[in-house]
Structure formats: structure tokens, C-alpha cells
Amino acid sequence: MSAIALILTSLVLNFSFSFSVKYYGTKTLYEESFTNEEWKEVLKSKLDHPKTCHPIYLSAIFRHGTRSPSTSATKKTEGFISRIKSYYNKIGRDNAQGHAEKLLNWSNRFSNVKDSMSLAEKGREEMRDLASRFAKRIEPYINPTALRMAFTSSNKSRSIQSAESFRESFLSYYSIKDEIPVQLSDIRLRFFSDCPKLRNTIEKNKNALKEYYSFPETFAAQEVIKKINMALNIPADLGIQKNELKSVFSFCGCENAVFGHSKICDLIEEHRTVFEYLSDLKAYWRNMYGYKLTSKVSCTLLKDIFEDMLLVQRDHERGIENFEQLHFQFGHAETLMPIIAALGLFRDSTPLRADEFKKNIDRKLRVSKIAPFSTNLAFVLYHCKDENKEDYKLQLLFKERPIPFPACESEILCDLEKVLKYYHWIMNECHRNSMCEILRDEL
Ligand SMILES: *[C@@H]1O[C@H](CO)[C@@H](O)[C@H](O)[C@H]1NC(C)=O
Ligand SMILES: *[C@@H]1O[C@H](CO)[C@@H](O)[C@H](O)[C@H]1NC(C)=O
User: Fold this and answer.
1) Are 77 and 240 contacting, i.e. CB atoms less than 8 angstroms apart?
2) List the disulfide bonds (predicted).
């Protein structure tokens, strides 16, 4: 009896848990990328560290906040929905039931948004909230002054506006009235663009991305297509097509993030994990671990960050007081994902393959958790001092919570020296021109 009760309870719990999960790949809302427990920790906005160590510098990189969908995701989604509508207009709207009925009066709520992929009000709000949590986090240790902080953004409106919302909220927390410019640098934050070798060998190379492109042909994806079209009760040639899966998922994620609900997400809800796998395959092969070059090109940004750390350390050691305290940078999912891979985080032991959806169900690389809107990575430099010695340590915060450096396994602070040694290739072998250049015999 009690065993049955236990099973029933766990079924109910499981059900309510999976029901509340809103993972939509890179279009996941920041807050929804956390479990409830994790989110509670985030809201505490406290740095966790030994008593003998004090933070002296923080450098963080953010993806822009929630944005509207791309033109291509919108076009494909509108095409799919309009086929449903015209089918039922032809056979009689009364025949539409369930999801089909609900989608008959679907309209594109982004139609009055002037630019595709522009930052939404929700995105500004995320940035303001992030800024106040970061402000609160450093408050006991760092007294920020305008001259000792910097804001850098890629030259895209969604990143610039994210930087501005963050800055406004951060400065107002400290009642700082000075104007601090947002410096624009695509070279820094869009290192993934203008790299011919990356473009030719990976990004535009369908063969290099074959695990991603072939996923819609796999049994798992074909089953999903069949079931969605059955649920809509429409002929297969009018239903969702294999080349629309990614766009429909992406569009639904944007709708959910901006408006808090999406009928299109409801339609695919039962199959969401299959859509997530598609998204993860793309991230794995195009932006993360599939090929070395993808993460290697992020070394320019990482090297800048590490070199800034070393400057701060040097000045601090010499008792020079005006070293930089804070640096906040704003970019894209394509900025963060290669960096996460270069650092060696969320690495699975085997590559993600199109036909291994079931086998990889517990994979570490889950874009919904790794690269949601506003995802961020912060490096915190600590000065540590006890009776015997004095040194500098680094802490990594991923989405505002400590994550160990691979160089230090389970410790939350790692010797700066040890970190730099571990990533010596970043400091010593980061030559963008030779990485990105296409040699004659490679053409
Ligand atoms: C669609 O219909 C439902 C009820 O059938 C209604 O609640 C909703 O407001 C309608 N949406 C639009 C966009 O007209
Ligand atoms: C940013 O982009 C605009 C055009 O989109 C260009 O006119 C401007 O020079 C760029 N600024 C920088 C600093 O790259």
C-alpha cells in the first residue's frame, strides 16, 4: 500500500516538475534556466569564499537579454501556422480541435516590433535585476567609482541596450551620477565573426555540421513530426516539416520568454526534449566542443580578461590604488558558448551524435541551462592573506553561482597562477591571424 502511495506521489511530483520546466534551448528565459533551489541561491546575491580572502576585482561577460525572434524563425513559423489555418478554413473550422483549434486564432504578437532580434522590455528587466544582484554581491568589499569601472559591448543593438540597462541599474544602486560610456568592440565580443577559416570549415560547411543537419531524419525526430501532425489532425504535407523544427522551437521560445506563454510551445511541449537535442547538437558542433577552432578563437577575449587580472594583481601588490575594479561586457550566445568550451566546462565524455538522443539524455551540454538569454560568466579576483602568506585566487561564477575551474576540481577558489598555467595556451598560443587564415592548400 505504502509502496503504491510512494509511486503515485513520485508520479505526481514528476509530472508537476516536468510540466513547469520551460527549457527552449538558447531561447530559454534566464530565470527558467534554473531549478527552484538554484534560483533561491542566486537571489541571495552573496559571494561565497573563505574568511581570509577578499574580492578586489570582478570581470563578467553577459549574453544580451530576452529578444524578439529572427526574421527567418518568424517566416517559417508563420508559414507552418498559415497552412494549418488554410486547411481548416477549407474543410471547416468546426473540425479543428485541441491545439489546432487554439492555433486558428494565433497571431504574431511580434508583428509591431520594428527590428527582428531586438531586445525586449523583458530583456531590459533581466539586465536591471542582474545589475542589482551583482551590485549587492560586491557591496561588502568593493566601493565602485566611475573611473575604475568599464562597460564594453558588441556593436549590436541588443547587446548595447543590454549594457545600457545594466549600467543604469548598477550606477543607480550606488548613486553614481557620472556618465560612463559603453565602449563598442566587435573585435572583442564578436571574435567568432570575420574568421574565414571558421566560416569555411565549420559554420558554412554542412558536412562539418552533419550531426545537426541530419537529426530531423532520425527516428526520434520523425516520430515527433508524425505525432505533432496527428495531434493537429492535418495531412503530413501541410503539417510541420523537418526543416521547420528549429525555427518553430526558436520562435516558441521567444514567445514564451517575452509574453510568458506560447500556444506554439504548448503544441510541442510533449516533445520538447527532442527539440532541445536539436538545439544542443547545433551548439555542440557549431559553437562548443565539436571542433577545436570554435573555442580556440575565443582566446582573444579570454586573454584580455586574464591580462586585465594580472594588471590588477600587479597594481594591488604594489599598493597602487587606482586599478580597475569592475568590467562588464555584453555579447551573444556565440560569445559565451565557445568561452565555456575553451574553459572546459560542461564537457561530456563522448561527442553528441544525431542518432543517440536516448543515450545522451543525461548529457552535461544542455543549451537551455548553459546559454539562456542573459547567461553570464564572471571572474572574481580575490586577495588572500593569513599570518603565513599572501596570494591571489580566482573564482568563477557561472550564472551567478560558483563553478569550479577544471584546474582546481572541487575548490571554489583557485590560485590565479594555477588557472593561468592550466590555460597556458590562451596566454601563449593565441594568434588570431594564423588561426583564422585559410592557407592556399586548404582551398
Ligand atoms: C483566441 O481565442 C481564445 C478563446 O477561444 C481567446 O481567449 C483569445 O483571446 C483569442 N486570441 C486572439 C489572439 O484572438
Ligand atoms: C557600429 O556599427 C555601425 C553600423 O551598424 C557603424 O556605423 C559604427 O561605426 C560601428 N561602431 C563601431 C565602434 O564599430
Assistant:
1) no
2) 53-384, 252-265, 408-414
Chain CA centroid to CA 319, Å:
38
CA dist., res. 373 & res. 65, Å (int): 5
Domain 30-442 has CATH 3.40.50.1240: yes
187 lines ligand 2 (CB under 6 A): no
Distance (Å, whole) CA 412 – CA 423: 17
Q: What is the pLDDT confidence band of residue 46, given thresholds at 50, 70 and 90? A: very high
- Rounded CA gap, 226 and 324, in Å? 57
Residue with cell 489532425: 233
CA-based nearest residue to 81, from 216, 255, 232, 223: 232
pLDDT at 159 over 90: yes
The alpha carbon of 99 and the centre of ligand 1 are apart by a number of angstroms equal to 13
Domain boundaries, the chain: 30-442
Which atom of ligand 2 is nearest to 155's Cα?
A: 1
Q: Quick one: pLDDT at residue 409?
A: 86
Q: Are 378 and 60 in contact (CB under 8 A)?
A: yes
